[in-house]
Write a structure and sequence with these properties.
CATH class: Alpha Beta
Order of helices and strands: HHEEHEEEHEEEHEHE
Strand content: 25-35%
Helix content: 25-40%
Length: about 160
């Protein structure tokens, strides 16, 4: 099953473009990332994805949450405006317009089992969305992912660009 997911995920990387469908592709990437990350103690009955601030990705993630699960866990998408609202989120997505909140987010999530995904193209987070040759792609920081007590599958690292 993981092999099929890996092939589909690679296909998504190959065919995605940086046009109006970009947020839909990012939401699909985020969902697919859950297949390659292990959270300590599992994911529980609800898998929480928090989006820091306003972003069109929220509606795309909500659409996915209506039809998909992470393992046996239902997906809850939360829009948050402060780090205090992160709570027990397994994933936090940080859009580019929240660049000023970078150090606050890192400090609030230091050592917590939370995958931080951003649009900031910085090595400070676990996964960063980038556009390469007009195609949506991503960078991974294995070091930052593991600092958050998460285990990342080497297949995910191979699909993106390793930054450290």
């Amino acid at each position: 099953m993981k092999k099929i997911s890996l092939i589909l995920f690679a296909g998504l990387l190959w065919f995605s473009t940086a046009n109006g469908q970009n947020e839909k592709f990012k939401a699909l990437f985020i969902y697919n990332f859950t297949n390659y990350i292990d959270w300590p103690g599992g994911t529980g009955s609800t898998f929480v994805i928090a989006v820091y601030g306003d972003s069109p990705i929220i509606s795309e993630l909500q659409a996915i949450s209506k039809i998909k699960k992470v393992g046996s866990a239902s997906i809850e998408v939360r829009k948050i405006s402060t780090t205090a609202e992160i709570g027990n989120a397994q994933i936090v997505f940080v859009p580019a317009q929240k660049k000023r909140s970078l150090s606050e987010i890192n400090q609030a999530l230091s050592g917590k089992p939370t995958l931080i995904i951003s649009d900031l193209a910085t090595s400070d987070f676990g996964i960063n969305f980038i556009v390469v040759g007009g195609k949506q792609s991503f960078q991974t920081s294995k070091l930052n992912i593991e600092m958050h007590k998460l285990k990342v599958n080497s297949s995910l690292i191979a699909l993106g660009t390793l930054v450290n």
